[in-house]
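User: Please fill in residues for this 388-position structure.
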């Protein structure tokens, strides 16, 4: 809908309520340029044109429904109007590449600074940099630049920060061991790094990250593995990488796996598959009635279980005249040892119950915060082309 700004004036708008103007004029505008023109027509429209709901709607129309990361980016930017402008400028400057705007990048890196056990909890970040043949020199540099920029941002808010950089291809090479961050040394190392070339073995990279974290991270530290790659691996390699990720989640606590897409023809679906796994520490707010039980079990080394609110039994309907009452079915408090077919059935039942509990309580994902994989993925520097 086009509105002629010269026909609108403050004199004719005084008696019209704000909600009516928004519903009849602003809500029909589909182009930010029209909103800007309308805002310049009068002080009243200039005020109404800054409405968050309007700009959120315009954002959704162009980039889709915002997730948690986008909502945080909007807060950092100071609202959807500013976030829209920032993304628009970034998109035009980066074309034909896709890159996140500064607010999105900051919101994503903020997750790496989150701690579950107090502000003094150690945070460990292992950057896994793809040095395979499908990544060219420019893309490789963008990954290394991100490692430095993210580490610098983290250092501002994390007192106990340890960082490692591992380059991977068919094999792995530890460029920076897991140790307290020395930013200048990190910059020097990344400037001098040489691409390995070869294939893309994500599994061996995740294995090395697990070894570094197990050896050099504090027992109760946060453990973040940041995978920077184009994700172009065959199905067998992806399956192997997912198995290694699940093993890492099983062996260590407070693990989150992040993926940043870099390169031409990034396989986003494969990356989401690799970083999606069972939670390593389902986060329970301290205000939750099950928090203390959860925390005590976790401290004792037992795998955390999602809280399950008690379900009151449904009242049984009285049996019809002449019918026998149906036997009540209750889950046993503890299953007795069984064998053969009974054991298989009991195992399947237990697995189904656990899966249902996880689904009911938390997102099923490899994350200390129980976040969906989509919230831990970001297109850092991508282009819809065939690999280089």
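Assistant: Residues filled in for all 388 positions:
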């Amino acid at each position: 809908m086009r509105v002629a700004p010269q026909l609108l004036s403050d004199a004719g708008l005084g008696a019209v309520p704000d909600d009516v103007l928004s519903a009849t004029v602003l809500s029909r505008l589909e182009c930010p340029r029209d909103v800007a023109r309308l805002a310049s027509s009068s002080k009243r429209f200039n005020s109404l044109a800054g409405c968050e709901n309007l700009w959120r709607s315009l954002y959704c129309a162009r980039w889709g429904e915002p997730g948690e990361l986008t909502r945080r980016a909007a807060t950092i930017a100071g609202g959807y109007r500013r976030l829209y402008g920032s993304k628009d400028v970034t998109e035009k400057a980066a074309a034909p590449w896709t890159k996140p705007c500064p607010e999105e990048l900051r919101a994503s890196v903020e997750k790496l600074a989150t701690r579950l056990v107090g502000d003094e909890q150690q945070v460990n970040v292992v950057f896994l940099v793809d040095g395979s043949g499908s990544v060219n020199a420019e893309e490789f540099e963008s990954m290394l630049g991100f490692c430095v920029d993210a580490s610098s941002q983290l250092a501002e808010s994390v007192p106990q920060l340890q960082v490692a950089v591992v380059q991977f291809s068919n094999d792995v090479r530890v460029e920076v061991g897991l140790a307290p961050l020395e930013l200048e040394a990190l910059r020097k190392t990344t400037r001098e790094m040489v691409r390995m070339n070869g294939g893309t073995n994500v599994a061996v990279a995740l294995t090395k990250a697990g070894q570094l974290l197990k050896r050099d991270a504090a027992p109760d530290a946060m453990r973040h593995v940041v995978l920077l790659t184009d994700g172009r691996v065959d199905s067998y390699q992806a399956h192997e990488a997912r198995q290694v990720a699940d093993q890492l989640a099983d062996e260590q606590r407070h693990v989150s796996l992040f993926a940043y897409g870099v390169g031409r023809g990034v396989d986003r679906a494969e990356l989401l598959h690799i970083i999606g796994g069972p939670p390593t520490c389902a986060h329970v707010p301290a205000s939750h009635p099950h928090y203390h039980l959860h925390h005590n079990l976790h401290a004792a080394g037992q795998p955390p279980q999602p809280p399950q609110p008690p379900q009151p039994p449904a009242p049984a309907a009285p049996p019809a005249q002449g019918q026998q009452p149906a036997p009540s079915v209750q889950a046993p408090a503890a299953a007795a040892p069984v064998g053969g077919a009974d054991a298989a059935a009991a195992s399947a039942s237990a697995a189904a119950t656990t899966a249902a509990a996880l689904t009911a309580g938390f997102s099923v994902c490899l994350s200390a915060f129980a976040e969906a994989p989509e919230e831990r993925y970001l297109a850092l520097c991508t282009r819809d082309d065939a690999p280089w």
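For context: The chain has two domains: 5-95, 106-284+368-383.
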